[in-house]
Every structure is written in C-alpha cells, then in structure tokens.
Design brief:
By secondary structure, the protein is of the alpha/beta class. 40% of the residues lie in helices and 21% in strands.
Length: 156
C-alpha cells in the first residue's frame, strides 16, 4: 500500500494546538500550513492547493462556520474536518449542514486525526503528488526525503 503525503491547511486560533497538529502532520510526512482565523484561511485557500482542511469553529475575525459557508459558496469541494470543542448534537448538525465532511470533538488523538484526513482525501478522490510511503506488512519505506527515527516513530 502506498500512502501519499497530504497538503493540509489547519485553521485554528489556539497557537499551541495548531503547532501540535502541524508538527505531528509534518513528522508523518505531510505538508501542513496554518491560519489563525477564517479570513486568513480563505486567503490561503484562494492562493494555494490543499488536499484537506482542519477547521476550528470558534475563532476571531471569522468563525469556522461562516468561513465554511463562504468556502462552499464558491463551489469548493475540498474535504473539511471540523475540529471543535462544541460537542452538542445541534452543533454537529449545523456543521454537517454547513458543509463539513467530518466533525471531531476536541481533544482528539493525533493518529486519529491523521487517518480521518487520509480517509476524507481518499474518498474525495484526492491524489497528492509527493512524499509517498510504501508499506508492505510491517515494513515501511519512505520514498520522500529522509526523516529522523523519532519523526518516523510518531507516525506509526
């Protein structure tokens, strides 16, 4: 099985959480980018290609649902995973109705977040181009640039 690197935009106003997600995804061979609010996120989406978006709901300047509605209003079908503290059913329904492809309540285990992103991109027909990881049984061969042993261990 070949795993391909994903280009992921993290839109999260909590700098520590955004950095944690960023570092984990990068250690797994992905190409993360980050924005602190919906306005900045939309600007990055307009000028760059991403395979998926991790989107917080409660942010300054433009909240996640407003940003998601604007994104979907442009016709974009990019997979969006909402990662939020809002755990009520009404919030989940609003998130999906607005256009979320997945909805995860914080806190989340980073390996779970990564596999959810892979599944979303795979179902959307995404075909990222770089950073392939070849896996056969328990053998892994990174076809991309060499990374440290610690970084590789984080992705298992």
């Amino acid at each position: 099985m070949i795993k391909q690197a994903l280009s992921v935009l993290i839109i999260e106003d909590n700098a520590a959480l955004a950095a944690n997600i960023y570092d984990y995804l990068e250690a797994c061979g992905h190409h993360p980018d980050a924005a602190p609010d919906g306005e900045s996120g939309l600007a990055l989406l307009a000028g760059n290609h991403y395979d998926a978006v991790v989107l917080d709901w409660m942010m300054p300047r433009m909240d996640g649902m407003t940003m998601l509605a604007r994104l979907r209003g442009t016709g974009s079908r990019i997979p969006v995973l909402v990662l939020t503290a809002r755990d009520q059913l009404e919030h989940k329904l609003e998130g999906f109705t607005t256009g979320a492809d997945d909805y995860v309540v914080k806190p989340v285990a980073l390996p779970e977040l990564e596999i959810r992103l892979r599944v979303l991109v795979g179902r959307a027909g995404g075909a990222p181009a770089s950073g392939q990881l070849l896996e056969v049984a328990d053998l892994r061969f990174d076809l991309g640039p060499c990374r440290s042993r610690a970084a590789r261990a984080a992705c298992r």
